[in-house]
Design goal:
256 residues, alpha/beta, Rossmann fold, six-stranded mixed sheet, four-stranded antiparallel sheet, 10 strands, 39% helix, globular
Length: 256
Amino acid sequence: MIEVKDVTVRFGEKTVLDHVSTVFNRGQTNLVIGRSGSGKTVLLKSIVGLVNVIEGEIIYDNVVFNKLNFTRQKGIRKEIGMLFQGSALFDSLNVEENVMFPLDMFTDMTFEEKRERVNFCLKRVNLEKINKLSPAELSGGMKKRVAIARAIALNPKYLLCDEPNSGLDPQTSIVIDNLIKELTEEYNMTTIVNTHDMNSVLEIGAKITFIYEGIIEWEGTKNDILQSHNKHLDDFVFASELGKKIKTSVGNMEHR
């Protein structure tokens, strides 16, 4: 479990997160949504310690992360898998070396043990026998799956994903969504996904947190979101093509 407790972040005079509090539970996909500039990426960076918190606490399973020294924070970071928006694979490394990177950084495993773990992780994301390919030889969806394999290489307790479907076609996005959900449940991870993809929200959103201008304005499940009475949330949801179709469908049902 990750708890965000009364967190405030400021950049100069601008307040980006304003006394934000929420809980992300283990074993489910926790989605954070909001328009660009709402603060959701800053929230994710605050949780992992890439942005300084002015007030409040980031709590990992009862440990106040942002009050720890660097060494103790590093211990928790070993348990965090990160999936970045652009996959963030190293162009100079092949697939095997990319997935092996966190094992090189944080373990004393032998090379054979590391390669065995790499092969296991690649197989788990349905990618086999591509170890020696370079990132340039991979499709967008394959890059995301390699990035997921790298994120789970250390068998993390926490998985943080920033716009995992960015730049992907709808069919590949569904594959990535389902993979994140399966891995979350399989390894009982605390997973947080930043997204603006309404397909993701309605497919895998066990818990949804909506941020508007640095404030959490609404929280609920994917089943609750279409019945919300929050104007900003409704504007966000129904701005997408999927949202427009759903709104039309709901409106037609109400007038029958």
